[in-house]
Sequence to fold (271 residues):
Amino acid sequence: MSQHKEVKLVTTHQLLAMKQRGERISMLTAYDFSMATILDSAGVDVLLVGDSASNVMAGHETTLPITLDQMIYHAASVVRGVKRALVVVDMPFGSYQGNSSEALRSAIRIMKEAGGHAIKLEGGAEIRESITRILTAGIPVMGHLGLTPQSIYKFGTYTVRAKEEAEAQKLIEDALLLQELGCFAVVLEKIPSTLAKQVAEKLTIPVIGIGAGPDVDGQVLVVHDMLGITKEFKPRFLRRYAELGDLMSDAVQRYTQDVKNRDFPSKEEAY
Fold:
């Protein structure tokens, strides 16, 4: 008799419990069905359908060009490949800033059309109205502070944020505000480790870091970066766990050579 093993879904409630018991949360980006299936089966807790798809999937220099329709397409593809992980979807630039009604419409589209489990927004006090309105509709929200790529032209650089006291204090205040509003978690990107530790200790909700040191509740990386598919991006916080770009290039070169030499397909590979 075959045994059916129940798959326990990761929920926002479980992430909170993981923080409370000191268990670290693993999070990676995903943009398509095949990759999502691999990451989910490997045990990643949270899959972020990041607006970084604008960079790694579409080749844009920034995250700004990607549209809500494109994010929904990527998110739906990821959701279909997931059996366990919590799927969080980035709301793209222009879909929530400055207009809470537009923010709610955008979030509802992501949940209805893509089947996402939660959404993520960049910013603190300046987007509180949008966060409140989305949460009122019963949609879970993850915050994002520190380096916020959608504001790259405001900052003018991708360097470490919140090194000065005033900006660090605002980040702490924004993190506490996001928690008070009802966000289930906060991402901190590229800030000093000491500040990230301070925020993680102050908040009761999980704090996920990317370039924020080891003393937070979890870590997130762009999957193409950590697998070595992309080569140009080499920040200090990135650890490459494989060099798939080299493996893929070698495989394609061997395939091309076999085709040109008429070694592929062989008789065994023909009908």
About this structure: The CA atoms of residues 124 and 174 lie 5 Å apart. The first strand starts at residue 25 and ends at 29.
